[in-house]
Amino acid sequence: MANVRESASAPHPRTRLDDNFASPIRFSLMAGLGDGMELDFSALREMLQCGDSPLSKAIAHLQAAGYVVARKGTVGGRSRTWVRPTKTGSDAFAAHLQALREIVALSGGAEL
After folding, report:
1. Is the pLDDT of residue 45 over 60?
2. Cβ count within 10 A of residue 53
3. Contact assessment for residue 21 and residue 67, using Cβ atoms and an 8 Å cutoff
């Protein structure tokens, strides 16, 4: 019974979920970038199988949160955008994943 009391007083792991990753595109974007990886917009669009507008919105949201940095440049005279996670973004995403793992573990589910 002591375990029930202890778990009842500890906050549920869902309280540590980051709303910035609530969108499947934003979540997938951070997962796809990995730790410190930089990808260009077209590679992200293909990887995430989404349109330009939803991807642009996801990048803008994560950039406003300080989770990604987007830089613009040109390649062969064409404008390009590259996106990479910040340390803050990588840390926040890792914490979000840990909270998801703990939620699954509470239900006795298989480890993620």
Report:
1. yes
2. 8
3. no
